[in-house]
Amino acid sequence: MVMYLEPKRPGSEGSRRFSGYDSDVTTQEWSSPNRLTNQLVVSQNSNKNKINTVDSADRETKHFSSTTTMHGPKRIYYGKRFARAFWILIVGSALALLCFQTYLLLEMYFSKPTLSQVSFIVNEGGMDFPAVTVCSFNPIKKSYVRELNASGDLTGATLEYLLQTNMDAMFLYSNLDRHNLKKTHDQAETYFQNHTDFRTIKFLRTAGYDCGEMFLTCYFGGRRFDCCKYMKPKITSLGKCYELDVQNLAPEWMKKQISPGSGAGLQMIVDAQLEDELRGEDSDASAIFSNIYENGFRYYVHPPGANAELSSEGISVSPSRNVYSAIKAVSHNLLSPREWGNCSENWPPSYKTKLSYSASACRALCIAEHFNKTCGCAPFTYNVDGSENEQLFIFLKYRFSEHRICAPYESITCMDKHMIRKVNGSEYLELPDCEECHMECQSTSYTSYNSYGDGFNQGSLLWLKKFSNKTEAHIKNNLAIINIFFAEMYYTSYSQVQATSFTQVLSDIGGNMGMFLGMSVITITELSLFFSKIFWIIVSRRRRQYMYSKKATEKVKEQQLDEAVKEFQERRSRKNSRENIYSLSNFHKIAPINRAENRLNPTSTSPQSTSIRRKYLYPDTRKNCSPKFHAPGKLYPKFSGFYDRPDFEKSQKSRISYQYFEFS
Questions:
Q1: Where is this chain compositionally biased, Basic and acidic residues type (predicted)?
Q2: Which residues does 455 contact at the CB level (< 8 Å), separation at least 6?
Q3: CA atoms 108, 117, 496, 309: torsion sign
Q4: Which residues pair with 136 in a beta bridge?
Q5: Predicted local confidence at residue 284, as pLDDT
Q6: Which string of b and e fits 249-268 if b means at least 16 CB within 10 Å?
Q7: What is the structure's pLDDT at 385?
Q8: pTM above threshold 0.85
Q9: E strands present in 81-214
Q10: 584-596: b or e for each residue (b if 16 or more CB lie within 10 Å)?
Q11: Is 395's pLDDT higher than 60?
Q12: Interaxial angle between packed helices 33-67 and 541-599, expressed in degrees from 0 to 180 and rounded to the nearest 10
């Protein structure tokens, strides 16, 4: 605030303008009584500004408390002593509970909770039939080994070592005899040096059974078809297997099962060819196959394009048996990270493969990379990519380089040296966590309910004998019938959904606001405006002056209104007083007038009657009262009676309904 004072300097007649700063006055002037006056003015203005700020804030608070839709402020503002303290406690507690509940709701929302939703979906057009992979427990034909060992240098130990190449590395680590492992490895290396054209992958492909040798015939929905026409070979830990992918390779009528039951599904008649089974006495080998306890077949029901061993559990069937696998499809739909989930739709950036993404395949490639970095090679069982380089025994083309297939000896020695960890005296195999391999967002799995029948009846033996041109003994010892079908024409869908949403959180917060303080979006707007006005009052001098002038103007208007109301009440009081007084006076006059009216003869003109009439009928002749006729709005009707109009003759009487009086 800048003040302009004009003190006179001693010895001068004029005056100069003074800005209020020390540099504008001399010591003599500033030490004069004017200095005290200036300080007093500044102090008064400062106090006035503080008072204006408080008054303006109080005015806004009063207005807010009177008009807000929020519960509580009005009772606090207008409350007295204990009532105000009580309502402050209640409103404060409600506000604390509201803040706590809002915090819990927001914490739950930002934790991204999810829940599972189960649905049963019926396909009216039929169920999409899955892929089926069938493997034989006898991966090597005895006839092929005899042909291959024409030179006689393929010993049983060497053949055993070759068959261990495609076995599961974890199984080898737990079951191999390490004492003889080095010896058999050296023998295999000698055979490879003598036969430079020998390839392990080629050996596994050609030593196994052909499709026509393993499958006699197939049916789908009771309709016969050529199995091998729609099957493709695959190398797994069980050797050479065959996959029937009806969705991608078969005709349209085979893609869906249109009705439940075994008669509408897939049926395969398979031949184990046990006469050509490789036995130890024939090859001087005790080969450790992936399953050493039974003969027959193992088949997998899995989604099309997926790895059979990694995506499903296998089902075994022995020769001379019928197996019925009633399957049910289960669909899993998970949420991606941007939708609060943790699934993956694509391969991690460092993985280079053409396979469809799945968590099991990703983990297999992850372990293969770990083996390659640690051992310089990768076990065969992790060749889920299917890439092969027979010349260098290389597979798994992904990530940064190609990986050489580990021989069994290399896998075991590397794991013993680099992957064994001891904890509390116990040893365990340490493998990578593969945290980048999340669950796939959409996947389908199949659950099978299996039942078995043992042996063939005479009718089926005759039919199979006629159909396959096999002997009855061969049929009983080698053939098995596999039936795969949907038990129901619906599937179960498990969907991961968000447990809450932003709209639901807003709704919950709004409900709590209404329950505790009766608040809404309108109330929040009112609070925002109130606090903005208070802040404006604090920082803006112009706003304080405006509020002060507005208060003064309203005070003047209020005084004027009070005066007008008071004046109106006084006028009304005077009017009521006059009416009451006059009514009381007329009350005593009416009765004599009536009695006089009864006694007098209205037609009489005697002086006595005239005097009586004047005495009783004309009370207006009293002092200070005179009858007059006035314009409407200024006259007051008082009573009815007979009145002798002065301008008429005394003998003429006229009845007057009202007589008007004016007090003078």
A1: 1-16
A2: 320, 321, 476
A3: positive
A4: 297
A5: 45
A6: ebeeebebbeebebebbbbb
A7: 66
A8: no
A9: 114-122, 127-128, 131-136
A10: eeeeebeeebeeb
A11: no
A12: 60
Tokens of 64: 């807010």
Query: pLDDT tens digit string along 108-128?
Result: 999 999 999 999 999 888 999
pLDDT at 302: 92
* C-alpha to C-alpha distance for 304 and 310, rounded to whole angstroms: 13
* Helical (H) or strand (E) element with 397: strand 394-398
Q: Which amino acid is at 14?
A: G
For residue 521 the two structure tokens come to: 């979006």
Q: How many residues does the chain have?
A: 664
3-state DSSP call for residue 323? strand
Measured distance CA(219)–CA(206) in Å, rounded: 27
Task: Give 443's strand partners.
Answer: 332
pLDDT at 76 over 80: yes
Quick one: tokens of 318? Answer: 């022995």
Which residues, in sequence order, are CB contacts of 490 under 8 Å at separation 6+? 120, 121, 122, 123
> In the predicted model, what is the mean pLDDT of residues 509-531?
90
Helix axes 178-194, 408-418, angle to 10 degrees: 140
Q: Are 254 and 220 in contact (CB under 8 A)?
A: yes
Query: Within 10 Å of residue 114's Cβ, how many Cβ atoms?
Result: 17
Mean pLDDT of the chain: 77
pLDDT digits (tens, 9 = 90+) for 195-252: 877 877 778 888 888 999 999 999 999 999 999 999 999 888 888 899 999 999 889 9
Q: Which single residue is written with the structure tokens 């008071």?
A: 566
| List of residues 6+ apart from 270 with CB closer than 8 A | 134, 214, 215, 216, 297, 479, 480, 481, 482
Which of 446, 481, 441, 483 shows the shortest CA–CA distance to 128?
446
C-alpha–C-alpha distance, residues 615 and 599, integer Å: 13
